[in-house]
Design goal:
It is a single chain. It contains 20 helices and no strands. It is elongated.
Length: about 325
Amino acid sequence: MATLTVPPVPPSPRDDAMQLYRAFKGFGCDTSAVINILAHRDATQRAYIQQEYKTIYSEELSKRLASELSGKLETAVLLWMHDPAARDATIIRESLIVNRNLESATEVICSRTPSQLQYLKQIYHSKFGVYLEHDIDYNTSGDHQKILLAYLSKSRHEGPEVNREIAEKDAKVLYKAGEKKLGTDEKAFVHIFSERSWAHLAAVSSYYHSMYGHSLKKAVKNETSGNFGHALLTIIQCAVNPGKYFAKVLHKAMEGLGTDDTTLVRVIVTRTEIDMQYIKAEYSKKYRKTLNDAVHSETSSHYRAFLLALLGPNH
């Protein structure tokens, strides 16, 4: 469930565009007004506002936002303005080409459904003029590359149906490929993790636990490492409980000295319209503190106000 709160009777996109223009005019930007509008509009409404703004003022709203805002707030708002698939494409492209930090690309690819990935591939190609698979091929290596390419290319079932017999067999195959032998048969992990649905992998995980006394997640942690391990862990955790997975990612971004704002922004912005209610519930359950309170203590000023507006009321 989403945490986005939209007015019961939202203003027209034209009115919103004009209000934004007013906020930009004069000395300094009325940032609070910008946040109050944009943090309370869904993806479709934001797309219409951008169209109207360009029609009326002959300039891209995103360009104007980039010149009026700065720092972490600018990054967060500009990411929010994309439609979900274009946003994912942008995050992956930056992760692969600009930052050369493969964590973001791995998380996004391995936490999306097959239909989301199909659409993402089309958008990636039309936006950057290159196939996503080509960029992965060029910027990753080894088993990490294999799992990403397999995960992007295989068509997986998206429904809740599971063949229990095959799930039990898969659990045995993974045990033999990992913990039972010296070394790891990565091929078996790539095959099962890229070809099975989330519902099926959740069942495999459950069989694994009952047969071998600990979770499949723990086995993956013990048997793999680096970006390959991160990809497998993302897939299995999103199959079993995506809310819990993202709660952990957010907690890790905020614990210790300093804050990993890139991760904080990425997760909040990409999950607000999908399952942020579940993430917030899992966060409170696991860390005995609300996600809103954690974000409040790690951020400040308009940047804080924007993220908290996306997170919705503090329960």
